From TrEMBL:
PANTHER family: ABC TRANSPORTER ATP-BINDING PROTEIN. Its main location: membrane. This is ABC transporter ATP-binding protein. SUPFAM superfamilies: P-loop containing nucleoside triphosphate hydrolases. Keywords: Antibiotic resistance, ATP-binding, Cell membrane, Membrane, Nucleotide-binding, Translocase, Transport. One of its GO terms (biological process) is response to antibiotic. It is a peripheral membrane protein. GO terms for cellular component: plasma membrane. It comes from the Bacteria. It holds the Pfam family ABC_tran.
Length: 290
């Protein structure tokens, strides 16, 4: 198997007495879309900032595209793209101007017009950034992250503030980038986003990895009981079962035609995620022992 794009072993980071990341081990494979999930304060941004080389770690080994990000050379920085939680400034310039200027910093940038089109900013390309809506500014953040043609793209809560259509468009862009071979590490609080985009998800809380799997299999979702629901005599009925097909056959035999309001559901990614983090949401990150 090839070297992972990101390799983390025993990563720890403490702010004062506050342990934000607590012995994290994680690999992100080359070419995969990986979603890092976790409640507020779980340590996602701290982890991503260490990987981006913006934050020094206290302990552990980290390799990003084969290089330790702590003190990595400029040539390494050119191979990664970063979309932070929020960026600002540059209000008097236009998206085209900032993209052109940023593109000049890279050896093999994408065409600025291609990036404007892919991020849905063509119509705003020559307007001042101060006149863009919140969602359009976020698209510009994404555009700036991909203009350098990165091998590895970090996206920190990329679709916050997007309307539903813009989110769908963005998901299409991420899938395109992934099929071009870009490795993508994304943090998000939207479970549907992780389900749509991620090959694998990692759930962290209090700086520790709680679960790691495909969205479909996380927390044993595939093998959990299904809920079969229907309406009978004007009353909503439901039962949980490990054999939903047998229940459907029994219902089909009881009703002459369609079974009224029939649904079969399994725990959603959100149900599974909430169950995983439940023991961790009331407490904050671990305190460093005295
Ligand atoms: N610069 C800092 N100084 C002190 N404490 C910090 C600093 N940055 C983060 N923390 C603390 O470290 C913990 C982890 O923060 P982090 O931003 O990594 O979490 P997160 O998972 O990204 O949260 P969110 O989902 O809210 O963005 C939090 O308790 C936070 O308050």
């Amino acid at each position: 198997m090839s070297e992972p794009a990101i390799r983390i072993r025993g990563l720890s980071k403490t702010y004062g007495q506050h342990r934000a990341v607590d012995g994290l081990d994680l690999d992100v494979r080359c070419g995969e879309v990986f979603a890092l999930l976790g409640p507020n304060g779980a340590g996602k941004t701290t982890t991503v900032e260490v990987l981006e080389g913006f934050r020094d770690r206290d302990a552990g080994e980290v390799s990003v595209l084969g290089t330790d990000p702590q003190g990595a050379p400029l040539a390494w920085r050119e191979r990664i793209g970063i979309v932070l939680q929020s960026s600002g400034g540059l209000d008097l310039l236009t998206p085209r101007e900032v993209l052109r200027t940023t593109a000049r910093c890279y050896r093999q940038p994408r065409e600025v017009d291609e990036v404007l089109t892919r991020t849905g900013l063509q119509e705003k390309a020559d307007e001042r950034i101060s006149g863009l809506s919140g969602g359009q500014r976020r698209r510009l953040d994404v555009a700036l992250g991909i203009v350098g043609r990165p091998e590895l793209l970090f996206l920190d809560e990329p679709t916050t503030g997007f309307d539903p259509q813009a989110r769908r468009d963005f998901w299409g862009l991420i899938r395109d980038l992934a099929s071009d071979g870009t490795t993508i590490l994304l943090t998000t609080h939207y479970l549907d986003e992780a389900e749509h985009l991620a090959d694998r998800v990692g759930v962290i809380a209090a700086g520790r990895l709680l679960a790691l799997d495909t969205p479909a299999a996380l927390g044993g979702r595939q093998s959990q009981e299904a809920t079969v629901s229907w309406e009978e005599d004007g009353v909503r009925r439901s039962l949980r079962t490990a054999t939903p097909t047998a229940e459907l056959l029994a219902l089909a035999a009881r009703f002459p035609g369609e079974v009224p309001e029939l649904t079969v559901t399994r725990p959603s990614l959100e149900d599974t995620y909430l169950a995983l983090i439940a023991p961790h949401v009331s407490g904050e990150s671990a305190q460093v022992p005295a």
